[in-house]
Amino acid sequence: MSEQLLKLDGTELCVERFGSPTAPTVLLIAGGAQSMVWWEDAFCARIAEAGRRVVPYDHRDTGRSTSSPPGRPSYTSHDLATDPLRILDALGGGRAHLVGLSMGGGIAQRIALEHPERVSTLCLISTSPAVPAEHDRGLPPPAPRVMAAFTDPDPEPDWTDRDAAVAYRTEVERPFAGDIGFDEPRQRRLAALEVDRTRSMAASMTNHFVLEDDSPTGARLDRITAPTLVMHGTTDPMFPMAHGRALAEEITGARFVPLPGVGHQQPPPEQWDVVVSAIVGHTEQS
């Protein structure tokens, strides 16, 4: 693996690479307020061992990438959605297999619709349709505990107090756990990694959520041409499983893989055998 800070169009984006540089690229796109640490090294390595170049990266305002003042992002949703293309260009151009989770799944859908020539395959995890439908999908809302996390959040800590910052970042994830349970030691370990390498945790936990949605109008999921795999936790409290099924039904030829007991989260280690096998098999298509 090799971490690198790319300077692209006046923006710094931190990427990491696993596997052979000549292997097909699998670009991992994390969720809102998530740096690359949530794609665990061992998870990335397992995909790389199957003959892929695996590239996770830090979104703007996460990890070591460019940071803006808290509450005042210096970029747009469109910038976030086109950063993967800038990264691919910097790494040699061409196409990639996109794996997007939650907000990252929305970004992956947008790229597949607007730049289909850059997408070899699409894998959407724990996410929801990012474009409107011609009909009301009737998708269920988040669980009450998730809604409460947004409407009545815990007070932010003193971000200069490392222990308090790690505790806060750990607890932020708790409402999103599924029936498989909340692995607090693992979450705390990842939270500590994130706190220790992030330029501004205050910006990281805020700025993605104040961006205005600038998705293009008129886009439809049935216009996605990339072979698509949808994986979704059966107990996702943010996007209940109907969201994943809607994606699989509206994207022509998409395959749906349920993840038993998983919530709204990166696939936990208990599911890596299933998830890694599915991603490796899916990315053999082109």
Automatic annotation (TrEMBL):
<dbReference type="InterPro" id="IPR000073">
    <property type="entry name" value="AB_hydrolase_1"/>
</dbReference>
<dbReference type="GO" id="GO:0046503">
    <property type="term" value="P:glycerolipid catabolic process"/>
</dbReference>
<dbReference type="InterPro" id="IPR050471">
    <property type="entry name" value="AB_hydrolase"/>
</dbReference>
<dbReference type="Pfam" id="PF00561">
    <property type="entry name" value="Abhydrolase_1"/>
</dbReference>
<protein>
    <submittedName>
        <fullName>Alpha/beta hydrolase</fullName>
    </submittedName>
</protein>
<feature type="region of interest" description="Disordered">
    <location>
        <begin position="58"/>
        <end position="79"/>
    </location>
</feature>
<keyword id="KW-0378">Hydrolase</keyword>
<dbReference type="GO" id="GO:0004806">
    <property type="term" value="F:triacylglycerol lipase activity"/>
</dbReference>
<dbReference type="InterPro" id="IPR029058">
    <property type="entry name" value="AB_hydrolase_fold"/>
</dbReference>
<feature type="compositionally biased region" description="Low complexity">
    <location>
        <begin position="64"/>
        <end position="77"/>
    </location>
</feature>
<feature type="domain" description="AB hydrolase-1">
    <location>
        <begin position="24"/>
        <end position="264"/>
    </location>
</feature>
